[in-house]
Design goal:
mainly alpha, Methane Monooxygenase Hydroxylase, Chain G, domain 1, single chain
């Protein structure tokens, strides 16, 4: 019975890892749609968002079934609870990629981003996708050191986000208020995407160690 339960827990982890892959791809395509004013890619991300929502529902249903199947304790209980929280974070990552794609669609055929900040968003997109891919590996490996390494990558995203503010707040910003608002919101989407990826990794640390990194600090919302 216990062996069968462990197999179910491994399957639940695989479902979460699959969600990581989905949201990484969504953000990668959304970023390309943003940089290239590609309506087709934006529509693809928007259309596929329902699959992320369905994946979260499936993960949560699986997790609740495992709670009912056999009252888990210790690591097993942490695994199931962490999976429920991680699925929520991953769905929100999908929503953030969706917001990026919708911005690209809303402004089409005009580009959303001034050339002045395009390189910043290219790099933010790279970091965001990398974080989601790393979270996928952490879920499968339960490697605590790798989980902690995501926080360093998140620091890189925070640095990019801060730099973006210095650009749009410059008194010589030539692109107007509407463009500044777009850039501000988009930058926030990437920054929150990264925060959620780190939150997923922290859940893995909680599973392995029984302690939540940064306890007492705000989690990504």
């Amino acid at each position: 019975m216990r062996e069968a339960y462990r197999v179910e827990l491994d399957e639940l982890a695989a479902e979460l890892a699959g969600m990581c892959s989905m949201v990484a791809t969504a953000m990668e395509l959304a970023t390309r749609s943003l940089l290239d004013a590609d309506l087709g890619l934006a529509e693809q991300v928007i259309g596929d968002d329902a699959k992320v929502d369905d994946a979260r529902a499936a993960c949560e249903e699986h997790a609740y079934a495992l709670l009912a199947l056999q009252a888990p304790v210790a690591t097993d209980l942490r695994t199931v609870l962490a999976a429920i929280h991680a699925a929520e974070s991953l769905e929100r990552m999908g929503d953030l990629a969706l917001h990026v794609a919708k911005a690209a669609r809303r402004r089409h055929p005009q580009p959303v981003l001034p050339d002045q900040v395009a390189s910043d968003f290219r790099e933010m997109g790279r970091v965001a996708v990398s974080l989601a891919r790393e979270a996928e590996q952490v879920i499968l490996s339960q490697d605590v050191e790798q989980a902690h390494s995501l926080e360093q990558a998140d620091d890189e995203m925070d640095d990019l986000h801060r730099h973006l503010f210095t650009v749009i707040m410059d008194k010589d910003w030539p692109h107007g208020v509407a463009s500044a608002v777009d850039v501000t919101l988009l930058g926030r989407f990437y920054e929150r995407f990264a925060d959620h990826a780190v939150s997923v990794a922290k859940r893995v640390v909680f599973v392995v160690t029984g302690r939540m990194p940064g306890a007492g600090h705000d989690e990504a919302v």
